[in-house]
């Protein structure tokens, strides 16, 4: 069986790209012929250190035949729509699965989905049904899963009277709202709250300058970081406060590490509420005033209450987001094809 995963942003590392890399390794382990294909040449491929050149292809009109007699797993709605049209017009012989990683509210008339669609969360599934009018029977929800890098959580000593450390992980871009967080929280949160921003992106220089020039002691920028679950163990909470999320891997990594999370759960971030249950393994807050209130209340948590949040986070990871659960569901879906 030949499988090709395609995506249009393989020159960077993000949630969708990590899932593609992990699925590729799983497909090879299962004995399938697996490749990854993107719009970039191999030199700019983000995973060239782990995926050899022979397992990567640059998409172009000259090599369109690489898709013949394959199962294509597309993680890009732009590429999915193109492949959908090519198959209809030129009768190309391939099976097509679309994986929807995010919530979209544009280009409805120019977006085409195949018979089999995967949504990475129930919120994404709802978006596919309500906005894109995809038949519910064509959609299967498969949560993104991650390899357990922790196994047993370390309950960090919680001393709220001294310092409360919060890790904010994500691309430094407008959609992740780091600059807005700094602007709205500056001067309004306890001096005990320390928020470290981890990631890289187009707004990182601006973020660094704002923190430095204004002398904001609540905030620090620590650059791009690998091994987020292990890093999260050095913090009390993990935070993600995006404009929209299909299913934030940062929150899954936090749960893996047994850390409570702070996030939004509405208006484009409904999927985050599938990871964070308010007052169970963290806090959902959908506006800046309530976020400030939540942050300033963290010092009132007892150690017992904090440790309960930690244990609940770990249970959510184990029950919903282990990588084995994701692999099992993709494998079953792939094997339903008659190749």
UniProtKB/TrEMBL annotation:
Keyword Metal-binding: no
GO molecular function list: glycosyltransferase activity
A Pfam family hit: Glycos_transf_1
Glycosyltransferase subfamily 4-like N-terminal domain residues: 73-146
Keywords (A to Z) from UniProt: Transferase
The keyword DNA-binding belongs to this UniProt entry's keyword annotation: no
InterPro entries: Glyco_trans_1, Glyco_trans_4-like_N
Glycosyl transferase family domain segment(s): 160-300
Family matches, as PANTHER family: GLYCOSYLTRANSFERASE
Entry protein name: Glycosyltransferase involved in cell wall bisynthesis
Organism: Alkalitalea saponilacus
Taxonomic lineage: Bacteria, Pseudomonadati, Bacteroidota, Bacteroidia, Marinilabiliales
